[in-house]
Write a structure and sequence with these properties.
The chain has 252 residues and is an alpha/beta fold. The chain has 8 helices and 11 strands. The chain has a single domain, classed as Spore Coat Polysaccharide Biosynthesis Protein SpsA, Chain A (Alpha-Beta Complex). The strands form 2 sheets. Strands 1, 2, 3, 4, 6, 7, 8, 9 and 10 form a 9-stranded mixed beta sheet that branches. Strand 7 and strand 8 form a beta hairpin. The radius of gyration is 17 Å and the shape is globular. The chain starts with a strand and ends with a helix.
């Protein structure tokens, strides 16, 4: 089944200030030749046979992404469409779920879809997750075991029964497990309309994808795919420096 990908680059990364005043987090360099974070994701998607992608960003950073797409992503047959969400500051942004619904509608996405947070650094092969997804044809969340309850409380925390997600709690003060969402999701095309349904539901929180997943598991089976390798969420300057140094060391 042909799968498109949506890479989420619409945030303002206020926790990485001041560097993200000028450069969006997914375009921060990591490793060899100043390769931006998002470029690793694009390369992984191409390796998985995905040649049509949508990148969502905001009005503040749209020109930087436009320039990056034009100058860096020039593999033959690769099509990257840019969707610009309204908002020039953190207070104006749509929120992740409203943003995804907007991106799907604006880009006319009607296929199975991989959704990936644009600040992800991982050694996962997305083609393996797609193989798992194609076998089950159910919404799938890529998970990572932090092996620390304290660390888990910074993320969306998941409880599994077999492959099935039985609970999903966004940044709980007392996590029930050390399994967290990596911000990588695969959705069958039939479930793409559910973003609008969720947003129309009374009192819905539209800030983080985790709230959507928590809502979704009450309606259908959602599966977890546990990634056993490396995964980093570039959430702080300390993490960014650590990843930057590690990737530089790998290149020498």
């Amino acid at each position: 089944m042909y799968t498109k990908a949506l890479i989420l680059c619409g945030g303002f990364a206020t926790r990485l200030a001041p560097i993200t005043y000028f450069v969006p987090k997914p375009l921060l360099p990591v490793g060899v030749a100043g390769k931006p974070i998002v470029e690793y994701i694009v390369a992984d998607l191409i390796n998985a046979g995905i040649n049509k992608m949508v990148i969502s960003t905001n009005e503040k950073f749209s020109q930087q992404f436009k320039y990056w797409v034009q100058t860096r992503v020039n593999a033959p047959g690769i099509v990257i469409k840019l969707v610009v969400e309204k908002g020039k500051s953190d207070g104006e942004k749509l929120g992740q779920i409203r943003g995804i619904a907007y991106d799907i509608q604006k880009a006319g996405i009607a296929s199975d879809l991989a959704i990936i947070a644009g600040d992800n650094i991982y050694d996962l092969a997305i083609k393996d997750v797609i193989a798992f997804f194609n076998e089950h044809k159910k919404p799938t969340v890529v998970l990572y075991d932090t092996k620390s309850l304290q660390e888990s409380s910074k993320f969306g925390v998941v409880e599994l029964s077999g492959d099935k997600i039985v609970s999903f709690t966004e940044k709980p003060p007392e996590p029930k497990s050390t399994l967290v969402s990596t911000g990588i999701y695969l959705l069958p095309k039939e479930s793409l309309g559910l973003f609008t349904e969720y947003l129309n539901a009374e009192g819905s929180n539209h800030d983080s994808m985790g709230y959507f997943i928590a809502w979704l598991i009450r309606r259908t089976d959602v599966l977890g795919y546990v990634h056993k390798g490396e995964w980093y969420d570039i959430g702080t300057l300390d993490t960014y420096k650590k990843v930057f140094d590690e990737y530089n060391a790998k290149m020498h």
